[in-house]
From TrEMBL:
PANTHER family: ABC TRANSPORTER, ATP-BINDING PROTEIN. InterPro entries: AAA+_ATPase, ABC_transporter-like_ATP-bd, P-loop_NTPase. Belongs to the ABC transporter superfamily. Keywords: ATP-binding, Nucleotide-binding, Transport. This is ATP-binding cassette domain-containing protein. It comes from Pedobacter aquae.
Length: 237
């Protein structure tokens, strides 16, 4: 497996944002990481990507512990954070060049053209990031996440803000990337899970309440849709 999490906790004050979760994610598969607002998805993703230290437990990416071998782990990860922080004053290509430099990518021009093509940024590639629509900013976020061809992609709500046409294209891109890479994505769109995920984890109040292959989860609950399963497993009592 390329991502392994065991007994992971993140405690803020008295709140257990992540409450002892364990799971694995595998190459060639897209793992949907689902849960209600505040369930602990982004916190888990930030720990996996080395941006936040856990309180206890372990997480590794491609065999590298994210705490003790953070840089090695990060080399293997592409991360699209929920807030998609970008530099609005930079031009798209200027920003992607900057990201290439960080990753010490060779043949920068060729690689930038490839990711512009992959993410459909072509028509907007000459603009400043601050001039882009939300959906195109999201594409820039995806482009920077994949530019170093990482083995693991961690995408926090990658399709938020996309229009229906863009949704289809970006989902296709994620599904294609998932054929060779390990993709973990969070989303609140249940159709998206059905369209692109192979595996599903549902997290509620910091704990995993489901972890299965999508088809197995649907079979177990005698339904064709993930939504009723999500509601049943996460509703407030
Ligand atoms: N820096 C922080 N300090 C204190 N509490 C925090 C901090 N960051 C997150 N939390 C809390 O931890 C819990 C989990 O938050 P997290 O952002 O991981 O949830 P999420 O599942 O990603 O939610 P959403 O679907 O709304 O993005 C929430 O209750 C949140 O308020």
């Amino acid at each position: 497996m390329s991502v392994k999490v065991s007994g992971l906790f993140k405690i803020y004050g008295v709140q257990k944002a992540v409450n002892g979760i364990s799971f694995e994610a595998f190459p060639g598969r897209v793992l949907g990481f689902l849960g209600p607002n505040g369930a602990g998805k982004s916190t888990t993703m930030k720990i996996l990507t080395g941006y936040l230290p856990q309180t206890s437990g372990n997480a590794s990416v491609c065999g590298f512990d994210v705490n003790t071998h953070t840089l090695d782990a990060k080399k293997h990860i592409g991360y699209l954070p929920e807030s998609n922080p970008l530099y609005p004053e930079m031009y798209v290509k200027e920003f992607l060049t900057f990201v290439c430099d960080i990753h010490q990518i060779k043949n920068i021009k060729k690689r930038i053209q490839e990711v512009i093509q992959l993410t459909g940024l072509g028509p907007e590639q000459h603009k400043k990031i601050g001039q882009l629509s939300k959906g195109y900013k999201q594409r820039v976020g995806l482009a920077q996440a994949i530019i170093h061809d990482p083995e693991v992609l961690i995408l926090d709500e990658p399709t938020s803000g996309l229009d229906p046409n863009q949704l289809i294209e970006i989902r296709k891109l994620i599904k294609d990337l998932g054929k060779t890479k390990t993709v973990i994505l969070s989303t609140h769109i249940m159709q998206e899970v059905e369209a692109i995920c192979d595996d599903v984890i549902i997290i509620n109040k910091g704990k995993i309440v489901a972890n299965d292959r999508l088809e197995t989860l649907l079979q177990k609950h005698h339904t064709q849709n993930i939504e009723p399963i999500f509601v049943a497993l996460t509703k407030e009592n």
